[in-house]
Design goal:
Blueprint (H helix, E strand, L loop, with lengths): L1 H16 L7 E4 L2 E4 L2 E5 L1 E4 L2 E8 L6 H19 L6 E8 L5 H8 L9 E6 L10 E8 L1
Parallel strand pairs: 6-7
Antiparallel strand pairs: 1-4, 2-3, 4-5, 5-8, 6-8
């Protein structure tokens, strides 16, 4: 942790010395609350990058239905932020069960255009929160 703090301090010092200013956050999606305390935003725009929070599918259904729902919601959040599926740089996929990997890929395939983003897929110990079989987040350019 000390090394991380030192690294961050070093980066800040270099940015200040170069006269660079870091871009401010410019836009938030819907804020999710827990007992009137804000927990997270559905997306956050910072500079020319949009960060989309994890999206799950909280309804009865199989992995294909959940994956389709999550990807449609991801596309909607990206559009609200001023981006699109073909500008996604990174996707993280969190599966409730690794046995759903092949079926999830059948729905995922082709959703990001001819030049798909980098991706990490993991099965989550203890499962995805709620009753979703999959959760995804992403990082995209504007």
């Amino acid at each position: 942790m000390l090394a991380a703090a030192a690294g961050f301090t070093g980066i800040s010092a270099v940015a200040k010395a170069a006269g660079a200013t870091l871009p401010a956050a410019t836009e938030n999606g819907n804020v999710v609350y827990d007992q009137e305390v804000p927990l997270f935003s559905s997306f956050k725009v910072h500079g020319n990058t949009v960060y989309v929070a994890g999206i799950g599918a909280h309804f009865e259904g199989d992995i294909k239905a959940h994956t389709d729902h999550v990807l449609k919601e991801m596309e909607a959040q990206l559009k609200k932020a001023g981006s699109s599926m073909d500008k996604v740089l990174k996707v993280s996929v969190f599966l409730h069960d690794l046995n759903d990997y092949k079926a999830m890929n059948e729905v995922y395939r082709g959703r990001f255009g001819a030049n798909p983003p980098v991706r990490t897929t993991v099965a989550v110990y203890g499962g995805v929160p709620g009753d979703s079989l999959v959760e995804m987040d992403c990082i995209a350019s504007l």
